[in-house]
Amino acid sequence: MSDWNTVEGAESLRIGKIAERSVVAGLEERGYRINHLAEDPLHYNIGYDVLVNNKRTEIKSNSGVDERGRAYSTCCVEKVTKVGRPIGWSQGKSDRVLFFNRSDRMLYIYEARRLHEWSVGRRTFVKWGADCLLMPWECAEAGYLCKVQL
What we know:
150 residues, alpha+beta, six-stranded mixed β-sheet, three-stranded antiparallel β-sheet, 2 helices
């Protein structure tokens, strides 16, 4: 079973695709070269969403705020999906991970290999059935490179 065949998975995919289109448009406006690959469900397991300046890039979306609208000081990083499928960056399938904070439209760019190295052995928690980590939005140890306001 795949995550996107559940009601929650379909909703998460819908929100993620909206955020992904916003990120891609914002990066293109800033001169980044984008090659979009993952629109077809057959490509969802390749481990990345787009090529950005020829780097395999995975885009992850976070609300950035709680239900009361208070900003989170940390980013929730999904490592293993609720059906037990490891996320692409944790398998070496991507070069960059972009964490998009939807509340303030800030994009945090990470080097995937360093993010993976940082995550190994770290305690996870379960959120909506997935194994997740908490990480500061700008965590140099985890491979933070820069941020881009979209």
